[in-house]
Amino acid sequence: MTASGGFTPESERVTRQLRDEIVDGVRRPGSRLVERELAETLGVSRLPVREALKTLVSEGLVTPRPRTWAVVREFTTSDIADLDEVRSGLETLGFRLAAQRHTREGLERLRATVDAELEAARAGDAVRARRAAADFHETVVSLAANELLNELERVLRSRLRWLLGQHDDLLAVALEHEALYQAIAERDVERVQELVLHHLAASRRAALGHHAQKRATGGREEGAERDAF
What is the pTM of this model? Predict the structure, then answer.
């Protein structure tokens, strides 16, 4: 949220930039976030950086360390499993309600996210495709028209965006979203239920496989990076 007149506080700007860099994989798990260094890089004082790090800790993307630094959270296999279980419960309900309650305006917004994801996936733009995929899931929850469900999704949003980014087959995910969109548009609740269970299972396999691959190929490099400090 921006302040009146369109002004964005520095802490919000820094938070958004760091969040995007973590979710998009620019800042790798275990990498250090030092207030002084971040302030110099971003051209701000240390106070907005400190506030941004506190926000990202509360969102579950950053792990605090003593004094003036933190690290990008390293999600364990257990973390991913726990997050996936919660996500599955929320989204199974959310997709069913979206199929029952969506409005024309909401359906148009959902169509736009699918189109953006398909375009990015076909262009091989991983960052844009994954962001659009996350937008799709958030839009579905908004179509469910359940304020408590929306509140729970907002609490978990950053971690869910991270989780939704743990896949490499961009077009396959986009096509699954296309099928889900069609079922939602037709208010075919049974078909939505069938598709979402398949989609969640595929996403779970992709996340765990991606995580295992990253650990196998990047663990040594990340360990060396940490040892260098």
Answer: 0.87
**The pair of three-digit structure tokens given for residue 4, joined into one six-digit string:** 């009146």
Report helix, strand or coil for 70.
Answer: strand
Q: Which run of H or E residues covers position 33?
A: strand 32-34
Angle between the N-to-C axes of helices 170-185 and 189-227, in degrees from 0 to 180, rounded to the nearest 10: 150
> CA 22: distance to chain centroid?
10
Buried b (16+ CB within 10 A) or exposed e, 139-151: bbbbbbebeebee
pLDDT at 92: 95
Residue 204 is encoded by which pair of tokens? 């779970």
- pLDDT, one tens digit per residue, over 176-228 is 999 999 999 999 999 999 999 999 999 988 888 877 777 776 654 444 344 33
Which residues does the chain have with pLDDT short of 50? 1-4, 220-229
DSSP β-bridge partners for residue 72: 62
Residue 134 near residue 197 (C-beta atoms within 8 A): no
User: For 54, which DSSP code?
Assistant: H
